[in-house]
Every structure is written in C-alpha cells, then in structure tokens.
Amino acid sequence: MPAPQNPFKTAIKKRELQLGCWLGLASPYIAEISAHAGFDWLCVDSEHAPNDLRSIVAHLQVIAASNAHAMVRPPIGEVWMIKQLLDAGAQTLLIPMVESAEQAQLMVDAVTYPPHGVRGVGSALARASNFAAIPDYLETARNEICLIVQVENRKGLDALDDILAVDGIDGVFIGPADLAADLGYVNQPGAKEVKQSVLDAIGKITASGKAGGILTLDKELQTQCRELGASFIATEIDVTLFAKAMRLAASSSSVHLKDTKIRGA
User: Fold this and answer.
1) Of 36, 48, 69, 256, which one is the catalytic site residue?
2) pLDDT computed for residue 172 by the predictor
3) Which domains does the chain possess?
4) Could you tell me the pTM of the whole model?
C-alpha cells in the first residue's frame, strides 16, 4: 500500500487552478468551517500565526475530513522542523524566505529519505504512515510530498533562475508583502514596481515548468497572475475576513442602537 495521493500536487502539475485561503486564526474550529467552504486548499500558517506542532496536527485532522487540501507553512526552513511536519501528516509544505539554490536544495533533501536525502526515518511513530499501517510509506512518501518554496525579497528574485533549476521543487510562491517592503514600498504591495516584479516572477516560474503561486487580495493581480499561468492562488485570509465582519457587525449595531431612545426616559 503506497502513501496517500496528493491531489494538490497532481492538480498544480497539470496547471489546474487551485484556489486557497490562509488560516492564521490558529483555531481548528475555524479550519473546519473553512475546509467545507469550497476552497481547494488551506494554508495552515505558523510563520506569522501562533500555531505549534500540536495545533497544526489538529488542523490537519479536521481538514482531512473535507475535500480541501492542507498546506503547512513553518516559521522557517529548518530540517528538523520539516521532519516533524511531514511525520505529522503534512504532504504539502510552503517554505518561507528562500533566497538561494543551495537553500532550496536543502529543503529538497529535508523532504527526502536517505540515501538521496536527510529526512529522519521514524515512520512507525508517524501519523503520516497511519502509524505503520502503510507498509510502503518509506518507499512511496516522496512521490506525494509537494515542496513549494517562497521567494519574497530582492535576493530571492535575483536567485530565481537558480532556484527554479533545483530538481525536486514543485512550485515557487511569491510573497508580495515582504517583497514590497524589501523594494522600499512598506505596506504598499499594490505599488506599480511591486506588481510588475510579481508578474515578472510568476511569468518566469510558469515558463520554467514549475507551478507558480501567490497570496493576494487584489483581484486584478489575481487575474493577471492566472493569465500568466499561476496555478495556486490564495484569495482570502481568515483573520481579515473575521476582523472585517466583526468590525462591520459592531459598527452596524452601534448605528442602530446607540441613538435609540428609551421609553419613559
């Protein structure tokens, strides 16, 4: 019995559009609601959200009961951290702040068992192997692991050609927020130079045969990236959706009730 098929990896390899949502509220309840909302994939973030290994496992468990696919972003690309996430059952990883081909190659090695990589062999203890119920896990796991590296600064853009040449990387994700800051446009991801840098990178990524992806709430940029062949696009963030809805609810209640006169007062 081989490792479970990764439908997300299969889809982006065919350049089939996969729409996603970022999960930063660090709540399995929110993840469960989001998993049944209709998104193709959900990114469980632990770089900028307060997720740890246990909460990530809880997210993976609730998402597994849906048709959505779980992507996990660790705080940083460390071999030991990647080992833990893979053993916990993550099949798709998004590694932040990749700036060189050497760093990208290390990430490939981290998701690959020896003798071709350095992933620690402990599958008998792992949720990934259904706790040793998948006898061929060690031989087949690598085929279903989707490795995406995130390029989000000048250094990464300068090294993009070399990063794209690394065998074993399935996709490259562009981070507009950090890129904007590094280009001198702090909190201005919609700046013309930033957008053009994003589009140039997406075009280069898709032309190389790798899958291109992005997180942006800018609908025009979403469309432009898709036109260039981007195959995984995150269009929403749970934090901003919830915050916006809560603020609107509070504001509407305030307008409706604060000026209401009390009878007999």
Assistant:
1) 48
2) 98
3) 7-257 (3.20.20.60)
4) 0.95
